[in-house]
Amino acid sequence: MASDDAEREATGDGIGEASAAVGDEASEQAERDRVAWQLGKSHRKVDAMERMRGVTRYTDDLKLPGMLHAKILRSPHAHARIKSIDSSAALAMPGVFAVVTGQDFKIPYGIIPWTPDENALAVDKVCHVGDGLAALAAVDEDTANAALRAIKVEYDVLKPYFDPEEALKVRDREGTINPYSRKGNVSKHVLLEFGDIEAELARADLVIEGEYFFEGTTHGAIEPHCALAHVDGGGVLTVWSATQVSHYLHRELAKVLELPAHKIRVIQPPLGGAFGGKSEPFDLEFVVAKLAMKTGRPVKLLYTREEVFYAHRGRHPMKMRHRTGFTRDGGLLGVDARTILDGGAYSSFGLVTTYYSGQLMCSPYIFPAYRFDSTRAYTNKPACGPKRGHGSVQPRFAMEIQLDKASVALGLDPIELRRRNAIKAGEKTVNEFQVGSSGFLECLEKVERSSGWVAKRRELPYGRGIGIAGSTYISGTNYPIYPNEMPQAAVQICLDRSGRARVFSGANDIGQGSNTMLAVIVSEELGIPLEDIRVLSADTDLCPVDLGAYSSRITLMVGNACLDAAQRLRRKVCESVAKRWGVSRKRVTLAGRMAIDREDPARHVDSAQAFQWAEADHGLLGETGSYNTPKDRHGEYRGGTIGASPAYSFTAHVAEVEVDAETGLVEVKTIWIAHDCGKALSRKIVEGQIEGSTYMGFGEALMERHAVDPAHRGVHVGPSFLDYRMPTFLDTPDLEAMIVEAPDANGPYGAKEAGEGPLHSSIPAIANAIYDAVGIRLDRLPFSPQTVLAALRQREERERAGQLAPHKPADRESRRSA
Amino acid sequence: MSPAAIMLSMTVNGEPVQVAAPPHWTLLEVLRYRLDLIGSKQGCDKGDCGACTVQIDGVPQLACLTLAIHAEGRAVTTVEGLGLLAGGVHPLQDAFDRHTAAQCGFCTPGILLSAEALLRKRGREVSRAEVCEALAGNLCRCTGYTKIIDAVVDASRVMAGANTQEAGRGE
Ligand code: FES
Ligand code: FES
Prior knowledge:
The structure holds 2 protein chains of 2 kinds.
Chain A: H1 2-11, H2 21-33, H3 48-52, E1 68-74, E2 80-86, H4 88-92, E3 96-101, E4 125-126, E5 132-138, H5 141-149, E6 152-157, H6 164-169, E7 186-194, H7 197-203, E8 206-214, E9 226-231, E10 237-241, H8 246-257, E11 264-267, H9 283-295, E12 299-302, H10 305-311, E13 318-326, E14 332-342, H11 350-359, E15 369-377, H12 393-410, H13 414-421, H14 440-451, H15 453-459, E16 464-474, E17 489-495, E18 501-505, H16 514-526, E19 533-537, H17 554-581, E20 588-591, E21 594-597, E22 604-606, H18 607-618, E23 622-627, E24 648-659, E25 666-676, H19 683-702, E26 708-709, E27 715-716, E28 734-740, H20 757-760, H21 762-774, H22 785-800, H23 809-817
Parallel strand pairs in A: 1-12, 10-11, 14-15, 18-19, 25-28
Antiparallel strand pairs in A: 1-5, 2-4, 2-6, 3-5, 7-15, 8-13, 9-10, 9-12, 13-14, 16-24, 17-18, 17-23, 20-21, 21-22, 24-25, 26-27
Chain B: E1 6-12, E2 15-21, H1 27-34, E3 53-56, E4 59-62, E5 75-77, H2 79-86, H3 91-98, H4 108-122, H5 128-134, H6 146-170
Parallel strand pairs in B: 1-5
Antiparallel strand pairs in B: 1-2, 3-4, 3-5
Helix pairs in contact in B: 3-6
The complex binds FE2/S2 (inorganic) cluster (2 copies).
Protein name (chain A): Xanthine dehydrogenase family protein molybdopterin-binding subunit
Domain Aldehyde oxidase/xanthine dehydrogenase a/b hammerhead (chain A): 53-159
Region (Disordered) (chain A): 1-33, 794-818
């Protein structure tokens, strides 16, 4: 913060003369010393009450005069060439207004500019069951659905590939799944090596080898994707979409529809959850836009729940092989990781996912050598993409079990083993990322103490166990998706005479509370309560560009931009009040809807008066703030920018489980989570992120499975909330969220991310607890009763064969005799 | 095209309502598309998520699985009517707000209606286990449920307190 402030002072903000510089410095010091009146408190969110009253309009709640409803025809085949599409009968039906096919969307797009490999609707071939190939607009959904059935498609069915390793072997064009791929079914390959991994493993006292499989999971936001488009009289296309990346959607719409960007307005209405599942353009946005252009009418499309499962972009299935070397006292020497990612039919964020599967493993532990070799394959399945904890949740599962195995082999307490290897503030990772702050040790200590770790390790009986895992995550990526020199975040704030503030931000509030976060910062700086602050967000006509809600970037980046603008305004307001009172600016502070004289608190005026004085002095009160990332955080090698972040968060989980050895049922009793978010700007919101993340990881560990069935031509195994089992109120364990604050110099007030990090270690903590309970290592997810039972049987056999000593024998003995 | 509409009469949030809708429409469709009561959400449209939960004659029901004609002559309460029950902001809404129990808020209307039924039935402070039992049919993907349970228990305490006060005044 200090250097940032100095820079802001030095470059000047047009309010003080150069001679005031010395006074300003003292004033900045006073500012820093002032007592926070909003930060770190709990707040009512700025937009929650209207949601609870049922008046908030989410995308599907919007209705325009003359609005039509669209539906998309989807492929029943996993892999097929389209020979012909005949939509004449559909178009002739009463109530049907227009039909579009892939021929209307020949320009390919992709969220990553280097891999534009999908079309809004399939042009020549379909690549997975559920791939869209035609769409139409009709007076209502029933009519649209009936008309879809009248579209005739002739397919040339091709051999589908569901196994990534099999797909990777294919060399011919016929078997190349993605129509734009130039390297067969290799979507991306990354091999990076740091230090001398073979030498480190050779000198290791212990090398643990393990193979792990993380079958995919999906986001499961309760609001399905929805979009509405309308072209106004002036030819401006407005698209309302349940998206978490309005800016990227804006860019891709312009590209595919061949419209200038200024002729398109993208609005993200309040959103019903996303978790990464709405972080790129989907077919429906292009479809409604094109149909609105064709018909001149507003057109809306709401995915069915089944369509959401096929749209997917969820967690990649990963097959992982890890070799991890240790010294006898538990020092981590190196990791050698080999990973196959099952990408599905399109790239999505896959280029980044492939890097993340390796790049994000070099913390929270420090070690001298690392190699990762990750290959992403195209398969005939719905495309995988980013889900909360993008790319690193799967390898974290492998990594943390490896550590647990080592602690058993070395006879070390697993928390102690992690402590010995913990990365410290200011250290550089083996892949050359600069870590600023780190509260990891405090996280470990907090979960150790609150879970009663030491006693439970000794005392829990057979069937009951406790496990630990740690993790780290980024607070935004240092570099945007498309290279440019412009700010990564920008915010505009206006103050008005009634004492209120309006905040314009392009950032997407997806339920995580980013609008409230911005209001808290403005409140803190300008002294007005949250209810006097209006945050207008994610409308490309009204708001400055923001890159969106992904990679946990908003608090750090948009927060910094907001702080920048708010501090400029604060200086103006304080200066004008100081002038009226004939005191120095540093004596004036803003809090409690007032401007107050610090040295004589009895003297104060209300905020409206203070703002009016400032407006009289300066003209209309508006300021912009920008944020760009520091450029010294990454490694100097190809790919060395991917995964580099201005600040890293840290997490530790302890899970306590009970395993029923008769049925294989695992019950997670409690999860203790300590998360270092730098500084909690709004306490309950941060806790909510920790709890929500942990819950999501818990679901992935025990019950969630997103997969297609090769025996049934690649249809989804259960595209509904009944079959895709997400934890209910009754399934979810007690979640004890604890906030750790190791402030980071790059975060606003020191703040880092909280929305994704606390998911990662949830899963391996449960796996490790299951081992502690019954002595089985689960290397495949999810830990269903069948998997657990099979592992228990296997262990029994090995015990009988004398290859393994019984687990927790003392306890089992005493039970047998009881 | 949809078949000819039929006329339905019901009481919605205390008001008598007459509405024409196709006979195969669900209560959720009638509420959202005909009456503009968009507070009831569609998360799955097949009875799996609970986002569409409303009350019919005071009992929580899934509006997406209920044909609108089933509500003929009955009293339907949606989240828009919840405040009315309390003459402003319902203690549940206030507690949800204080505890940040709504993140995206998409599940919240349904959860509020399930919770209200529980609190009315119990008429006293409820336990966390009771809340989990009563809300097991409502999925929330954002919160991990913790803050929702906190809020419902808190609201039950507030309401029980208010009841005791009222009873006290009556004596
Ligand atoms: S929409 Fe009715 S249960 Fe999901
Ligand atoms: S708050 Fe988002 S689903 Fe419950």
